[in-house]
Write a structure and sequence with these properties.
CATH architecture: 3-Layer(aba) Sandwich
Strand content: 15-25%
Distance between the termini: 25 Å
Largest sheet: 6 strands, mixed
CATH topology: Rossmann fold
Helix content: 25-40%
Number of domains: 1
Number of strands: 6
Structural class: alpha/beta
Strand order of the largest sheet: 1-6-5-2-3-4
CATH superfamily: von Willebrand factor, type A domain
Order of helices and strands: HEEHEEHHEHE
Length: 167
């Protein structure tokens, strides 16, 4: 219920795929990408980290069915945690909560390309036979998101959600 009600506020980017639902028993790899740009600000970034931490608590990480990677972006991209670094909800939440705000300009397109090049790698725990879902939380502008829609089918990711929040 929590995840599906949250996704109502996200923009699903048109990707040729079937939808993984909250009730799915299929394993999947999820990349949670947080905007840490100046337009978000440090106070709102703290709120976003708290939300992502709660979202992580709803995923089936401890059983190994779901693997989660977390990254943050502005002009630069930082992997906070790769898929194979945390096998429990608690350890992943600790990692998310310890990451500090950095600031910078927003670059959604570059961040999504970096997800593919730096996160979705078998050497970093990505499972090639498992669905990949990217959920990006951003305060980016609509035209930034439009650029992503054009490019997303070039980047082999099964599902992408761009979740805009207004700080």
């Amino acid at each position: 219920m929590f995840i599906s009600s949250f996704f109502r506020y996200c923009i699903p980017i048109d990707v040729q795929c079937a939808t993984v639902t909250e009730t799915s028993t299929c394993p999947f790899d999820v990349v949670l990408v947080m905007d840490r740009s100046d337009s978000v600000g440090s106070d709102n970034f703290a709120i976003l980290k708290s939300f992502v931490s709660r979202l992580v608590s709803r995923l089936d990480i401890d059983s190994g069915k779901t693997r989660v990677a977390v990254a943050a972006f502005a002009r630069n991209f930082k992997v906070i945690s790769h898929f194979d670094e945390h096998t429990t909800v608690d350890s992943l939440q600790d990692e998310i909560n310890s990451y500090n705000f950095r600031g910078g300009t927003t670059d959604i397109d570059k961040a999504l390309r970096r997800v593919r090049k730096k996160v979705m790698l078998e050497t970093e725990g990505d499972r090639s036979n498992i669905r990949n879902v990217v959920v990006m939380f951003t305060a980016g502008k609509d035209n930034d998101i439009a650029v992503v829609e054009v490019r997303v089918n070039v980047i082999p990711i099964d599902e992408v959600y761009i979740c805009r929040y207004m700080p």
